[in-house]
Amino acid sequence: MPRRDSRTRTLLLATSGNFAQLGARMLISPLVPAIMVSFAVSKSRIGVVLTGMWAVYAVFQYPGGTLGDRFDERRVLFVSLGLTAAVPILLGYAPTFSLFGLFVLLLGAGTGLYFPVASSMLTKRFEHTGQALSLLTAGGSIAGLIYPAAAGFLVVAVGWRPTMAAAGLVAFLVLLGGIAFTGSPDGGNGDRGREWLSLGAMRAIFRRPGVPLTVALSVGFGFTWQGIASFFPTFLFEYWNLSETAAGVAFGGLYLLSSVAQPVVGRLSDAVDRDLAMVTSATLAASGLGVLLFATRVEFVVVGVIVLGLGISWPGVVQARIMDHFGDAERGQGFGFIRTVYMLLGSLGSVVVGSLADAFGWIVAYGALVGVLSVVLVVLVTRRLWGQA
To answer: Quick check: pTM over 0.85?
Structure first.
């Protein structure tokens, strides 16, 4: 186990890097109205580009983990942060929408390398992996709170182009700090992991005991989060008639509460049980959605937001459960592959929730997410009652 001060620096690098890479992607959404005016493009064209970014981000989880295992995790981390620093500047000064779209896809690829490598690096260095990975994911939640709020101020003050470029400056500062304070690279595993690029090796991952269930649970949680994250302000605006400002504040509150709850639930998963921590998160999230859907007074929106925000505390525990299936030499590759699979499937949450809301209304749309969480709870509780690992 590395020295405590070294592990602390590594945790700070990983968490601040996750803050920077997720923030760079999230910054685009609040700038969409200004970008549409600047390039004279429609919402549908912007939507295609953003969908492409998230898809590329998901696909690059597997190469990121593979490169981290074969070479050196910190080198791959620095490459990802370097791209996260450079691409927002290119985005901010793209002369045409075609180049803007190309750079958005490049941002998805560069940031997609980050998370599996950072997660593997922390898992190798910390005994309490649930807490460490929850702190890592909490860095992203804090970005979800800060970046959109900063964008709302800066886009008025200086315009969308300098605002977008500012995200690159944040990543550049994190990169400099990482190079200066985390020491020399550890060295990689040479050619180890090449066999993971075959279809047979990918199938072998799913034959491991417990992996199919972990993937299924990850898809359920990812699907739910995607549906909430994509439409929560719109839901509050349309269903509860809140103002756009109030809906935005409530959305930021979700991220704030989630960032506080994640390390606590991660520690619970280390001290007691991963599945118990997941049950706690899913129960709170389903309860919060239920309050928001069926409360009779607008005052209960606050209660629903608080309970839901505390419930969305599963990301670090999900990552830790995936990591538990792999040893050090293969952890980045296996983790990256599973993240690619579950993130691509989980991304359907946006499409499904949006379609259900258009066709049947919000009770059906967000009620479907309560249903998904209920299935997750039934599976986890049944396994616990039967005493399965």
So the answer is: no
For 1-194, CATH number? Answer: 1.20.1250.20
Whole-angstrom distance, CA of residue 20 vs CA of residue 304: 29
Q: Which of 101, 124, 177 is nearest to 7 (CA)?
A: 124
Q: Where are the domains of the chain?
A: 1-194, 209-324+347-389
Long-range contacts of 288-291 (CB under 8 A, 24+ apart): 289/228, 289/366, 289/367, 289/369, 289/370, 289/373, 290/370
Which class does domain 209-324+347-389 fall in?
mainly alpha
Q: For the chain, how many residues are written?
A: 389
Distance of alpha carbon 138 from alpha carbon 155, whole angstroms = 26
HEC profile for 117-149? HHHHHHHHHCCCHHHHHHHHHHHHHHHHHHHHH
Each residue's pLDDT tens digit, 101-126? 999 999 999 999 998 899 888 888 88
